[in-house]
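Protocol step 4 of 5: obtain the predicted structure for the target chain.
Materials: sequence only (see below). No template structures provided, no constraints applied. The aim of this step is simply to have a reference model before the mutagenesis design in step 5. Sequence pasted as it appears in the construct record:
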Amino acid sequence: QVQLVESGGGLVQAGGSLRLSCAASGRIFGHYQTGWFRQAPGKEREFVAAISWTGAMTYYRDSVKGRFTVSRDNAKNTVYLQMNSLTPEDTAAYYCALDPAGDGLEYDYWGQGTQVTVSS
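Step 4 output (structure tokens):
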């Protein structure tokens, strides 16, 4: 069993920054990819960013490119999402997810989410 725990969410003014963390524990094997997703009220969940096991490959949705940075520390089994220049449109519950196959096709494990609220 794999557990993912997100932290770092909160209330911030537009233009501010937050850093989310995703700590993984349990039976983790292989070179998994980790992704960040978000879901705003009344909207579908959407992909935000992802990072490969080595950290050599990162992926972002267009609207966060240049503002968000995903990174990982495998020694700590933790992935981070640094979010800068936040806008009210970034307000959502943010979830991290783990893709054991490492190909980005299927995320099998999900955290409980952390709320990010950006005020105008």
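Step 4 remarks: The mean pLDDT is 95. Residues 34 and 98 are 5 Å apart (CA to CA).
Proceed to step 5.
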